Amino acid sequence: MNESSPSSATLASPQPSTGEIAEARSALKLLFALPGFHRYDRGAEVALLAVASELARSGDVVTVAGSGEPRPGAPYRFYQVPSVRRERFERLPKFPPFRSETSWEDATFATNLMVRERLADYDATITCSFPFTQWSLRAKSPSRTAHLFVTQNGDWPAVTNASEYRSFDCDGLVCTNPDYLARNQEKWNCALIPNGVDLKRFQPGASCRERFGLPANRPVILMVSAFIESKRVLDGIKAVSKLDDAFLAVAGDGPLRGEARQLAAELLPGRYNQLTLSADEMPDLYRCADAFLHLSLLESFGNVFLEAWACGLPIVAHETERLRWILGAGQFLCDTEQEQQLVTQLRSALFAGKTPAPAGIERFAWPAIAEQYREFIVGILARR
User: Fold this and answer.
1) Which residue from 132, 310, 336, 372 has the fewest beta carbons nearer than 10 Å?
2) What pLDDT shows up at residue 13?
3) Which residues contact 373 (CB under 8 A, 6 or more apart)?
4) CATH topology of domain 26-196+365-382
5) What is the CATH number of domain 209-362?
6) What is the reported pTM?
């Protein structure tokens, strides 16, 4: 090809910097709303705050509404909306639409959100909490505002037509895995956008076990999980008890904490520790482990898989096509309801050891994921 040709000139032209791109495009005014923001550091909160942070850094005007405390250095505006903590509702009756302690918490948050925040000020609102927060966002926003629902906790509001689910509506459904996309794309305006991971924070590194009360002379298996039925922490305790020398550390909390503590005292005396840590401490905790265990039979996505992978840990989890889509073929997946398979894979993972330089994780970096969110929102607004 002639070097003076137009095609060659186009290829040789300098590319705009990230800052120039941010200046060139119109800033979006976005509201991320979830009662757990800045109060809990669980999967949904971590994922959506990461997206909010990246969009704010790229030049959009981002507000985060949550019930926790402001965090110094956050790139977005934080608006504290009071709510009653979910732990206060653990013993209350469960009935539609108050199906769990998180639904009760959501109702108190949504009520205050409607009263305190000017929802007319935003181009788009984003949540993964249904029904009450989603209802409040749609009730008080003008028709020009786009509403995104993210399937962080499942796509059940979008696919269920009974009880309060019949009221579900959105302008855009973010599907965090291909299953959700296939189930919903004919009914809703969908985009397949996975979760991501902060590769600057989650990476292999030196262990600091003494800081977390973990033994220096035993293999450590880590679970990062809420103490609820679907996470199967009790099954994890039983499986690790079959390994003579392994220590189980569980980072999380929830209604089954007492049962787990009692079972561990019987089956894992001196080989169990429950921790409740801040998000800032989690990368160091991953680096203290020798293997990662997660026993949910089906996760919407599971940020913890990416965090463990990025830190070089071998992963033992339940075999599903969805998880293979995320992790590929290099991990230790099996039918975790078969205890012998699970124990065998735990042994194999510990024998394989950690990876000093995880390959393939780069495609899940948060800046790339946040840009997919932005493109989806811009496309919705362009059609309004």
Assistant:
1) 372
2) 31
3) 51, 55, 126, 148, 174, 193
4) Rossmann fold (3.40.50)
5) 3.40.50.2000
6) 0.79
